[in-house]
Amino acid sequence: MQVVAPSTVNGVASTIAVLVLLVEFGMLRAGLLRSQVRLYAAQSLIASLLAVFLGVVRHEPELLILAGLSIALKTVVVPLVVLRLVRQSGTATTGSGILKPAGAALVALAVAGFGFFAVGRSGLRVDGLSPTVLGSAVAIIAVAFVLMIIRNDVVSQAVGFFSLENGVSVASLVVAAGMPLILEVAFLFDLLVAVVVFGVLMRVHHEEQSTLSTAQLTDLRG
């Protein structure tokens, strides 16, 4: 049986994790809702490839099953549901947000850099993998929070939340890839519940306000 060199495992896993992070930046820059949803589907596919790779390298078939479920749910089902809601709303562009595109990119770069710095300073080490993979996962989560905060439309905020789950998935693959399959599937079930909640929110909000913008909701603040 051929053994994969640790450097090769580190290189491939780090590359996949960084690609997931770059797609997150793409969602932050996307001006069309359809583009954001498609980028989320691509990000989910890349994150699932990390599960496939680690499953093959570590000889853990549970990760292959998890990857198949993730591709079916996060790459196919969720994007199709969100795209259908977007078509029904008749809205094509994302909300304006509270920051200009350049400012949003600078904030995202800052929080992503902080994620890498925090992982490096924490001293966390994962057997067989470099800190770059875990740092990328933390950066993905941080940039997803930025996306949810700066955009003022329901779809962008939903996509930000869904992509945050991708960051958590990458982190769990790095830190606890050997956890029981039932626990890993439970994370996907939580995502499915979130899709239902956001879907209802999109539909009700559009029926009440005739828009997907959440700018009017600031009037409810005390």
From TrEMBL:
Keyword entries, A-Z: Cell membrane, Membrane, Transmembrane, Transmembrane helix
TM region(s), chain numbering: 12-32, 39-57, 63-86, 98-120, 132-150, 185-204
Protein's cellular compartments: Cell membrane
Gene Ontology CC terms, in alphabetical order: plasma membrane
Alphabetical list of InterPro entries matching this protein: HyfE-like
Membrane topology: Multi-pass membrane protein
Record's protein name: Hydrogenase-4 component E
Organism per entry: Microlunatus endophyticus
